[in-house]
Amino acid sequence: MKAIVIGGGIGGACAAIALKRFGIETAVYEAVKEIKPVGAAISIWPNGVKCLNYLGMKEAIRELGGQMRYMAYKDYRQGQTMTRFSMQPLIDSVGEQPYPVARAELQNMLLDTYGRDSVQFGKRVTRVVQDADSVTAWFDDGSSATGDLLIAADGTHSTVREYVLGHTTERRYAGYVNWNGLVTIDESIAPADQWTTFVGEGKRVSLMPVSGNRFYFFFDVPLAKGLAEDRSTVRDDLRRYFTGWADPVQKLIAQIDPQTTNRVEIHDIDPFMQLVKGRVALLGDSGHSTTPDIGQGGCAAMEDAVVLANMLQNHSLGIEDALLRYQQKRAYRVKDLVLKARKRCDVTHGKEMAVTEQWYQDLRQESGERILAGMCETILGGPLE
């Protein structure tokens, strides 16, 4: 059996590693000549960590991950703590730690695990054709690749998605812009072992520890699409949007490097239930493009990879049957994650400001129990419980 994997990002690399683990021949084709991860870092929650453990990267992910022992929300003006609690009850409940990691380092870990030299770069898929026994991908350089199945992990702008669904899908602007990057840990801004978030005005400023004595930071601001802002205006833009915010926020803005700070308009895609067409399966963002508001985009792709490989390994009624079982296992799960993230996005970013203000008030009474229970529910929906 040979699997063609379209895309060498998180989802594609995990799928290739998972299939290789079961002795399935794989060929990975990536559109760009060099992968440059979108976003500075990613929070890998325990469901994702368990997938990486399962795929043989238990020690490697621990070396890359930051130690996030506490979680805290702070008032945006004075920086006063609204709530602070240990993450240990979450870890005890689900049986694994969360690990914030730098995206570039995660990507390198995945490519090294699979075999970087085995990935063919500069191969952008243009069309897919299948018959009763095989599937062929054609690339923009005129070349093609044929296998027994094709895994489309070609991202939120997926070319293969339209082939699978039979129609185009529109990306939905979630209503806010995210700036993100990495800075050296400064405990006058936030503790080194804590996920710290300043909230107010429908905006947020968040810091998570990653390895190498660094914070992953992000700023969220509800804004119109298409503003003329880029790296040349980053610091001035953030100072303007966060005027009057607490001193640690101002200190963070002063310390960021505009040249390595990303500005992203956040989108998602309405969930759909069809992830498979014959011998072709969607995986990761191609099948469930989500906002980052519950931190499950990358984790869901890792889950996809594990489930897909297991369906192919554990079922003997043919490839198309195994892929339909993959779809059955994943469609409701990923729909739920997309909609949970969208709901959290709207509350956090002031879609209805009265609802957001009530959330701020609730945070002041929060013991951590409710927040952690919500996280547990999401995490325990994964395939490795």
Question: Would you write up a description of this structure?
Answer:
By secondary structure, the protein is of the alpha/beta class. It has helices at residues 10-21, 46-54, 58-64, 88-94, 103-114, 160-165, 234-241, 247-255, 297-314, 319-348, 353-364, 369-379, and strands spanning 2-6, 25-29, 41-44, 70-75, 81-86, 99-102, 119-120, 125-130, 135-139, 144-147, 149-152, 171-184, 194-200, 203-210, 214-222, 262-269, 276-277, 280-282. The strands form four sheets. It has a seven-stranded mixed β-sheet with strand order 5-4-13-14-15-12-16, sandwiched between helices. A six-stranded mixed β-sheet has the order 7-2-1-11-18-17. The chain is globular and about 65 Å long. Keywords: FAD, Flavoprotein, Monooxygenase, NAD, Oxidoreductase, Purine metabolism. Pathway: Purine metabolism; urate degradation.
